[in-house]
Amino acid sequence: xxxxxxxxxxxxxxxxxxxxxxxxxxxxxxxxxxxxxxxxxxxxxxxxxxxxxxxxxxxxxxxxxxxxxxxxxxxxxxxxxxxxxxxxxxxxxxxxxxxxxxxxxxxxxxxxxxxxxxxxxxxxxxxxxxxxxxxxxxxxxxxxxxxxxxxxxx
Length: 154
Prior knowledge:
By secondary structure, the chain is α+β, with helices and mostly antiparallel strands. Helices cover 23% and strands 31% of the residues. It is built from three helices and eight strands; from the N terminus they run βααβββββββα. A hairpin with a 2-residue loop joins strand 3 and strand 4 (61-67). The protein is globular, with a radius of gyration of 16 Å.
C-alpha cells in the first residue's frame, strides 16, 4: 500500500553543506536581491520589490515571489507565482551543522511534470545550491550585499 496516498507529490530533498555560520547563510539567502547571484534557476536579472512581494524575470518569464517572514529558525520558504497564475510553494531551510550550515531545498514534483522535466528541475536546484556554496565559501563578503557579522573595509 502506498502510504503517500493518491494526492501526495513526489519530493526530493536537495542539500549542500556550507562552511559558513548559519546566520551568515540565512542573512544572504533571505535577501531576494541576492537571488540573481546564486539562483539562476529562478532569477536571471534584478529583483524589484512590489509591496510585500518581489518580482523577477526568470527562465519561465516574469514571476512573483513571496517569502516567509524573517525568523531565527532558518526558514526560507517562498512561493513562486508563475505567469500562468499557478503558485508553487518551495520549502527551504538553513540548518546548523557544526560550525557551518546545511542548506536544504525540498523539490516537489508539480502535477503534469514529466520525468525529464522533474530531472531538469532537480539539476537546476542542484546547480543553484552549488553556486550558493561556492559564493559563500570563496568570498569573505559576497558581491552586492554585506553578510552580517563581517565588516568589509570601505
